[in-house]
């Protein structure tokens, strides 16, 4: 971990001078402040304002980091996230904390916003509402040793100061495929947007495990929310293979998009769809979606309680259960 001593050494000043420069002391010349600032940037150093403020009892805000929002149709706009935030806010309010949000239209923009959030000194704890491989934002927070909770699972043996809250997404994917199998479907396809998102990857692994246990072929269909023509061609290729087909879809928003593509394709295929999140969109869809409720409000509550607790960091997650909510998109095969 980079310290104030490293910054001072690179800037050619004493640690106390570096500290005063960082705090914009009138005792330090502007030229020295600029040297210290450049050293901080070169070393990617952030002052540990969170620790200072905790000592001073000034840091009473929990930062919430949302996934990158690439466009209006991005899964980052999902009402699922609002439900998690409501759960976090309820617990934080009860314990005298406020919440602040960080988001961005790109990973670089999100990283900049999180850096500013930490460097402001007002944020002492963070909650990530996503987790993916090779994430610059999480890596930065880990280097700063800020206490954080991730809604998701760890992929590293050294999670830094992170704790984790999650569903058993592997089991949820398995259960989704098993539910469709009970309805008589054997041609079952997993539809997703990106396997670099660990939630989607784990659900696929669970689905694939069920298919393998029944000697059935696992098939994955990547659907982009930006290119309908490409997605529709891939879908038609799948539908042409079978007269009866079912889909395990990673999210309610994507499931509704899939419903629209199917309608446009006007395919003569008996279809079933089961998705995840059981958001308000699932009940409003036409036909209404069978969806797996992963209890996002409870995920938010657990995340807030964990980030405010004194529990030691651990890669082992606190697990929240899931439940299949059956509606109109999973009829028995005729």
Automatic annotation (TrEMBL):
Q: Which organism is it from?
A: Streptococcus equi subsp. ruminatorum CECT 5772
The molecular function GO annotations come to: DNA-binding transcription factor activity; transcription cis-regulatory region binding
Concerning InterPro entries, the annotation shows: HTH_LacI, LacI/GalR-like_sensor, Lambda_DNA-bd_dom_sf, Peripla_BP_I
Q: Which residues belong to any copy of the HTH lacI-type domain?
A: 2-56
Instruction: Tell me which Pfam families the record gives.
Output: LacI, Peripla_BP_3
Q: Does the keyword DNA-binding apply?
A: yes
Keyword terms: DNA-binding, Transcription, Transcription regulation
Keyword Transcription regulation in annotation: yes
Protein name per the record: LacI family regulatory protein
Top-rank taxon of the source lineage equals Bacteria
């Amino acid at each position: 971990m980079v310290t104030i001593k490293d910054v001072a050494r690179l800037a050619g000043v004493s640690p106390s001078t570096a500290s005063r420069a960082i705090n914009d002391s009138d005792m330090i010349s502007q030229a020295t402040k600029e040297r210290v600032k450049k050293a901080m940037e070169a070393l990617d150093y952030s002052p540990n304002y969170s620790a200072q403020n905790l000592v001073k009892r000034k840091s009473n805000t929990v930062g919430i980091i949302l996934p990158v929002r690439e466009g209006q149709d991005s899964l980052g706009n999902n009402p699922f996230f609002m439900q998690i935030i409501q759960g976090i806010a309820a617990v934080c309010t009860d314990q005298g904390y406020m919440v602040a949000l960080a988001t961005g239209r790109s990973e670089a923009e999100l990283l900049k916003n999180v850096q500013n959030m930490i460097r402001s000194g007002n944020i002492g704890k963070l909650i990530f509402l996503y987790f993916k491989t090779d994430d610059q934002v999480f890596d930065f927070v880990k280097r700063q040793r800020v206490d954080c909770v991730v809604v998701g699972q760890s992929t590293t043996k050294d999670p830094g100061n992170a704790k984790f809250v999650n569903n058993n997404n592997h089991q949820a994917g398995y259960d989704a495929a098993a539910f469709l199998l009970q309805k008589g479907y054997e041609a079952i396809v997993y539809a997703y947007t990106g396997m670099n998102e660990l939630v989607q990857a784990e659900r696929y692994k669970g689905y694939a495990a069920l298919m393998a246990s029944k000697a059935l072929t696992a098939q994955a269909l990547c659907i982009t929310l930006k290119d309908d023509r490409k997605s529709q061609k891939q879908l038609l290729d799948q539908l042409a293979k079978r007269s009866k087909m079912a889909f395990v879809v990673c999210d309610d928003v994507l499931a509704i998009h899939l419903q629209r593509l199917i309608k446009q394709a006007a395919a003569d295929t008996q279809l079933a769809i089961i998705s995840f999140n059981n958001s308000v969109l699932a009940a409003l869809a036409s036909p209404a979606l069978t969806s797996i409720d992963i209890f996002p409000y409870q995920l938010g509550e657990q995340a807030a309680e964990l980030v405010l607790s004194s529990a030691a960091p651990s890669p082992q997650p606190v697990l929240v259960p899931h439940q299949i909510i059956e509606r109109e998109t999973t009829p028995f095969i005729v």
